[in-house]
Design a protein that fits this description.
25% helix, alpha/beta, single chain, seven-stranded mixed sheet, four-stranded antiparallel sheet
């Protein structure tokens, strides 16, 4: 499954869920608040900008936002909300594609770095962020913590969501740090529609090493966009890396 096949016309049309899910104000607003703060009045670049879930409200806050996006259908959906002069987008992958910079902030939200399916590609994503940033600029990643503790011995699948009309199942390949998310959507007539997406999961310590290889220093890690404490029980994290030595925390 190639990423450009996964994020095709059907996915782009179904991606936006205004007011619910990842578009719910309690989910989206803290992310936009924090990113606006980290931009510090400078320009921001979003890797895998998608349909503009974060970029559009961030631009409305006065932050100049540019995007990189692999999927033309996702860009087309973004264009129904903001034109090219408002949010410029360069088509390409987040590990190698460049956008006219420099930027004060590069960010990558909602687990999207895991769409890169090899460790070298994920390292290149960090290096690509570094290429775009001014000295002292920040790279922000929102990412789930792998759920391998939920796997009983000998079992390879975990149900991560079960609700009316939807079932989500992750299958794991621990040897290669791969998982595939299977999304079953049920219609009222009892029919099931399946979509799948492959990922390479990353441990927080591994992410820190990738950052170091690209010249970043860790600045902060929280359990959420509101600044909650990151602990051994946290299911996700928002990690902020700074290009070059950190002078304060």
């Amino acid at each position: 499954m190639r990423q450009d096949e996964i994020w095709g016309h059907r996915a782009a049309q179904r991606y936006d869920t205004p007011g619910t899910g990842m578009f719910a104000p309690e989910v989206l607003n803290p992310a936009v608040d924090r990113l606006a703060e980290l931009a510090g009045g400078g320009r921001a670049l979003e890797f895998a900008i998608g349909t503009g879930r974060v970029a559009v409200p961030l631009a409305q806050r006065g932050v100049p936002v540019t995007g990189i996006e692999l999927s033309q259908p996702m860009i087309d959906q973004l264009r129904t909300k903001a034109d090219e002069s408002t949010i410029p987008v360069v088509m390409g992958d987040m590990a190698t594609t460049t956008a006219p910079g420099p930027f004060h902030l590069v960010y990558l939200v909602f687990n999207t770095i895991s769409n890169l399916l090899t460790q070298p590609e994920q390292v290149e994503c960090f290096r690509n962020a570094a290429r775009h940033l001014t000295p002292g600029g920040r790279f922000v990643i929102e990412l789930h913590v792998p759920d391998l503790r939920k796997l009983p011995p000998g079992q390879q699948a975990v149900v991560f969501t079960s609700e009316p009309g939807y079932l989500g199942v992750d299958t794991y390949d621990p040897l290669h740090q791969h998982l595939t998310s299977h999304h079953f959507h049920y219609t009222e007539d009892g029919q099931a529609h399946l979509s799948r997406s492959p990922h390479r999961y990353i441990w927080p310590a591994e992410l820190d090493l990738m950052a170091q290889l690209a010249g970043f220093e860790p600045e902060s890690r929280h359990a959420d966009w509101k600044g909650g404490e990151f602990t051994a029980e946290s299911g996700a994290h928002v990690s902020v890396y700074r290009l070059g030595p950190v002078t304060s925390t």
